Amino acid sequence: MTQPKNSLTQQKPRFSVAIQSDGYKNLINSTLGDPNRAARFIASISSAVAVNPMLQDCDAGTILSGALVGESLNLSPSPALGHYYLVPYNDNANNRKTAVFQLGWKGYTQLAIRTGQYKNINVVAIKEG
Description:
By secondary structure, the protein is α+β, with helices and mostly antiparallel strands. It is about 45% helix and about 10% strand.
């Protein structure tokens, strides 16, 4: 089935392309302040998105927003580290996919350790039965 000539199909830029745009780079640089920190942030978040096909379909602005929350807490977006996750959701009201910041259990422990208020922190798996 062919589409009508007057209909336009709008292709969203992939995150890897969007994050390299001047607008996003300027936003990241002004938010983080340090060019080295900004470069490290862009590399780490691009890597985290590259390994998750579902995130690649999400709106780039929501990925960046969630990642900046993680960066403000000084946590890593690496799924292997488990500090936090960017979880893709369908936003049916706006007909798009969004990425939402989700703190992981290792992120909770990191934040607790940093407070200096705990003498000892034990993390154990809880199993049924």
